[in-house]
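Late entry, written up from scratch paper. The run itself happened at the end of the previous shift, but nothing got recorded in the book at the time, so transcribing now.
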Amino acid sequence: MEIYLIRHTEPEIEKGICYGQTDVPLKDTFKSEAEIVLQNFPDKIEVVYSSPLSRCLQLAEYVSSQLALPLVVDNRLKELNFGQWEMKKWVEIDSDSLQRWMDDYVNVQCIGGESYQELTTRVSSFLDDLRLQKMEQVAIVTHQGVMKAIHAKQQQLSLRKAMEIQFHYGSIAPYFF
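Output as recorded:
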């Protein structure tokens, strides 16, 4: 199965804000960014999957409507839940709590949120269910954290190593499972 991971377009949020699962809007450049995604979209996609957060769903709806593709929304494709840190500036987060998390974000939960391992477990559950669908090509509109988790699984990398990879807004990354 070929999976094309697509990161949402650029959100309208100040740099340095922790926003994870908060539903933030997209910049007013969405249409032009979405057109670039559409121009680079793979030819034989059978279905578009999306995170339910509007920054992904807006792009997924646009692409699926333009190409007459079915759209399936799945909560397991959400970004990392940063709990009490959501919508705080990183510099405003308690430094001791932040340092504990930074030292081992793979296993340590954000206060009231989740660890990167927990995100990976839910994403792996999605991939396991997806494999049962027996499709050849699918697109997944999601978030950088989810993309890194899938990259780690596909490339057999540690989650910490996968965090070094950067997926730009609107990028499309192919994987074969």
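The radius of gyration is 16 Å.
(Scratch paper discarded after transcription.)
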